[in-house]
Every structure is written in structure tokens, then in C-alpha cells.
Amino acid sequence: LYALRASDGTERWRFTRESITGRTSAPAVTAERVIASLNRSVYAVTRVSGEFAWQFGTDASETVYGPVVGDGFAYVATDTGIIYALDTADGTVGWQQSRSGTIGASPAAAGETLYVPYDDAIVAVDRPTGELLFESPTTAASSPVIVDGYVYVNDGGPTALAESSSTTTTAPTTESTATPSATQSTPTQST
């Protein structure tokens, strides 16, 4: 885990741990911490110095996805279907939620809702309580992206889920490179 100056790539600090191999996710940053899932654990270091702050370990066979941070918690999910809310200050578990199924990508958040990509559904969870809000059947193969009240997830084709509904609709294929909130594009048609 590195902190590099954006303007010239100068290394500010480097955090290393022995035997970190395998899958990692992008780190999340708070005012005080940099939090990253490295293989089967979640590590937090101080943002300024990279000094070790805490570690949260899961079962030795689990891969950890995330984190997503907000409201003093880091939200992570394991490939075995468990979601954790970890206090960013010390790594203690605020809540834990599980269901059958496999998770293969990082969760995403919008407002007080956490969207988790299971192999058979997008699951919406209340961030403050861990309560299951809804499940929308889909084969999620990527981390969700939330824009303008819709959850977008790659399931082999573009799919949009209404934020407060369990209805799935197929979105048209477009060639726009702008974000959905910035511009509207029309579907590509061949003549």
C-alpha cells in the first residue's frame, strides 16, 4: 500500500505486511485513515504517515472486497456472503449481515444504502443498521455504480436497477463517454 504525491509520483509512505498475496481492492480514505482489503484481511493505516492502526481478519479461506467508507464505518464483504461494518477508528464490528450466495466484487454506497453484488442478486442493505432492504435478482459480475437513483451493474450486459425498487430493466447500449447525469445519449442504430 503506497501514498504517492499526485503531482510527481514521489512516495510519501509505504505500508507492507508479510505474506500479502492474492486479491486486493482499491483503498478507501477518510480524514484519519487509509483502509484497504489485502487478501483475507482489512488493514487501516494513518493517512499522514502510513503507520499501522488496526487489522480485521476473516476466515482464512475468505476473500475480502471493499472497503466503502462513510459515517465512521468501513463496509466490506467477503466472497462467502458476509458483509461487515467496521469502525474506522479501531476496526471493531458495528454490525454483520450474511445471506447465502457468493460475492465477487466490492459493494458500493449511495446515501444510507449499501449495494452488494451477490452472484444471484444485488442486495440493498441499510448502512446504519445492517438491515436487509431488498434483493433484486441479477447475475452481478462487477461492483455496482449508483447515479441519479439507479444502480448499474455488469451482468454480461448493461443493467439498471431502480434504487428503491426490486425491478430490473435493461438499459440501451450507447456510445456516450459522459456520465449519465452530465449528458444524455441516444442508442446506436445501424442503417
Brief sketch in words of this structure:
Helix content is 0%, strand content 46%. It is mainly β and 191 residues long.
Give an account of the 3D structure:
The chain is mainly β. 0% of the residues lie in helices and 46% in strands. It has strands at residues 2-4, 11-14, 28-29, 33-38, 41-46, 52-57, 64-70, 73-78, 82-87, 93-98, 108-110, 113-117, 121-126, 132-137, 145-147, 150-154, 158-162, 168-170. The strands form five sheets. A four-stranded antiparallel β-sheet has the order 3-4-5-6, with no helix packed on it. Strands 7-8-9-10 form a four-stranded antiparallel β-sheet, with no helix packed on it. Strands 11-12-13-14 form a four-stranded antiparallel β-sheet, with no helix packed on it. The radius of gyration is 18 Å and the shape is globular.
